[in-house]
Amino acid sequence: MPNRGLAFVTGSTGFVGGELTRRLVGDGWEVVGFARGETQVDGVRATRGDLADADAVLAAMPAGGATVWHVGGAVGNWGPRGPYHAANVRGTENVLQAAAQRGARRVVHVSTPSLCFRWKSRLDVREDDPLPARQPNAYAWSKRLAEDRVRAWAEGEWNILRPRAVIGAGDAHILPRMAAALRAGRLPQIGDGTNEMDMTSIENAVDALVLAGIVPAEKAAGKVFHVTNGAPTPFWDALRGVCARLGVPPPRRRLPFAPAFALGALFELLGGRREPPLTRYAVCLLGRSQTLSIERARRDLAYAPRVTTAESLEAWCASELARVGQ
After folding, report:
1. Domain 5-323: which CATH class?
2. Residue 139 among the catalytic residues
3. Are 112 and 162 in contact (CB under 8 A)?
4. Which member of 84, 139, 281, 303 is catalytic?
């Protein structure tokens, strides 16, 4: 197989970074992975380190025109700003500095559509729509600052991807949290149940990431791309389907949006360092519609979602049932 090039992937042990690493190896890239954990992908030159450690990032970054996929970072919907700043802002600064020193060809930075979040339903949000002045939590705040660092980087080519709610077999964040709440009977339906949500199958997210690294500069350089499955899903209908597949009772209680929002505010006020059982942000995610336009990714990256939300939910359910021995 011909060598497709040199790749440097941060977060190579994570859900998205791990799948991207496997794809790049399979496509014939020479891949250097960087993560705090041990990379379990054959054919990868793995380096362990912390993104906040500039020396470690520079030592791991290969010279010779690598394409850099910056996937790693801290995720979550709650917590103080410090750890998010260290991983997501300082970590991005370190990756960009190392990329400049090592002569990287392009940096593909993974961000989040949480930057577009407002306390209301939003449909078909585009990349050039104005971002809100304030972010809903420390994670989104840190990713906004990280994007600012990338946009200001003048030492090479860059682009930014904002994949929405990446799901599929191997997901250890979104669907497992939902399943745990459902099994414990702690997740009521919030709102009238008609809200829609965009999701992104892991295969589609990786497709978009690879394309962002290889399409000509005139198509991709200096641009932000939203990435989803391109088919908004009625969220509570999808969740009831997951419940049926897992043999878990669906939410029986219904909580109107306004009382749920007020309850989330109260929990935040009373909460400490541990994430409250409900936050205003979570209430909006569960009870308001949030969809993105992927027209730019379709046009400039030739991105074409090939795995549906239903297929990814089924793949995760199958893996979850296998995990618990059902």
Report:
1. alpha beta
2. yes
3. yes
4. 139
